[in-house]
Design goal:
With about 325 residues, the protein is an alpha/beta fold. It contains ten helices and twelve strands. The protein folds into two domains: about 70 residues, Ribosomal Protein L15, Chain: K, domain 2, CATH 3.100.10; about 240 residues, Four Helix Bundle (Hemerythrin (Met), subunit A) (Up-down Bundle), CATH 1.20.120. The protein is about 50% helix and about 15% strand. Helix 3 packs parallel to helix 8 and helix 6 crosses helix 7.
């Protein structure tokens, strides 16, 4: 199964028999059987889609994601049948005000902090002999991150509302250590003064935001397939148009999927080009390829090897099972 990403302005998407037809400048450049497509992501302006093509995607269970050129998701087309069980969604809403909601938040943050630490460990291990000074600085930051993370173990409270401020304080302090460590790794390779989110125009933050957009679409699809309500989260507050549960679950995977990929590209001499405040088409194409490759990589999960794409789906189902009282929820921790 393949994820198809459309990056060129003016692309026309249509249907011919059982195949997706992709045209550029009036010429057919690709025909792909719908049965071989997992997801269709459109990250360009001026793209045309036929209703027959959309219908065929829905019939084959293919979700269609729409991203801005900077990687921000702004729409998704999926079957109205992907609603899961009513029980799951009822329990999800109720869980916000009881201990289940708090347990999920603590697990999401634990997964995020451990995966951030493991990304630093992954890059640090190659510098132990080559650059002992840098290795020592990274080790010091890792020690501080672990001390901050351990604060999660001493919480007392029963709901998210009681502890949200404290949780965000822990997440923010650990993130400062993490991004300082990333800055040390990238020093001398590319300028990186710190993490910025929306509106960032520097190469590193632009690349990260673009990668997060691709990951975010994957998680959104997994949440819907698990029968969960994307807009009823726990860690991220409710706001119209904000799929807070998608943002919650994405936290577990940002570092091990996107950060590790982008930092690796830069450390290996890859370039990220920005023109007029946005990534070039060539850069977006290469970053999309790298992030999708990472999603196809295998990691250990429940005693077996699974692709990261499949692990995201399994974690979404774990959330649903936990909310229904059928199992525990444990965050996914990637190897380093």
């Amino acid at each position: 199964m393949r994820e198809i990403v459309i990056l060129n302005f003016g692309t026309v998407l249509g249907k011919k028999s059982e195949r997706l037809v992709i045209k550029e400048q009036g010429k057919v450049v690709q025909e792909i059987p719908f049965r071989d497509i997992s997801t269709l992501t459109i990250a360009a302006r001026g793209v045309s889609l036929s209703t027959d093509m959309i219908h065929e995607c829905i019939e084959h269970g293919i979700q269609i994601n729409f991203l801005t050129p900077s990687g921000r998701p702004y729409a998704k087309v999926s079957s109205p049948q992907l609603s899961g069980t009513v029980m799951t969604r009822r329990e999800q809403i109720l869980a916000y005000n009881d201990a289940r909601g708090l347990a999920l938040v603590l697990a999401f943050i634990e997964g995020k902090l451990k995966n951030q630490a493991n990304v630093l460990k992954y890059f640090a291990k190659y510098r132990r002999a080559a650059d002992p000074g840098l290795y020592a600085e990274l080790e010091a930051r890792l020690a501080r991150m672990e001390a901050i993370r351990s604060e999660l173990e001493s919480f007392s409270g029963t709901t998210v509302e009681e502890l949200r401020g404290t949780i965000f304080s822990i997440e923010g302090r650990a993130a400062q250590e993490y991004w300082d460590g990333i800055g040390l790794l990238l020093s001398g390779t590319v300028e990186f003064t710190g993490r910025e989110r929306r509106g960032a125009e520097d190469p590193v933050n632009s690349a990260l935001n673009y990668g997060y957009g691709i990951l975010y679409s994957q998680v959104w699809g997994a949440v819907m397939l698990a029968g969960l309500e994307p807009f009823a989260g726990f860690l991220h507050t409710d706001r119209p148009g904000k799929p807070s549960l998608v943002l919650d679950l994405t936290e577990e995977f940002r570092a091990c999927v996107v950060d590790r990929t982008i930092v690796g590209v830069l450390l290996r001499g890859g370039t990220v080009k920005v023109e007029e405040g946005r990534l070039t088409d060539e850069t977006r194409r290469e970053l999309a390829r790298r992030v999708l490759e990472r999603l196809e990589a295998e990691e250990s999960y429940e005693g077996k090897k699974h692709k990261l794409r499949a692990i995201i789906q399994r974690q979404a189902r774990r959330v649903a099972s936990f909310l229904r009282g059928e199992s525990r929820y444990k965050p996914f921790i990637a190897r380093w």
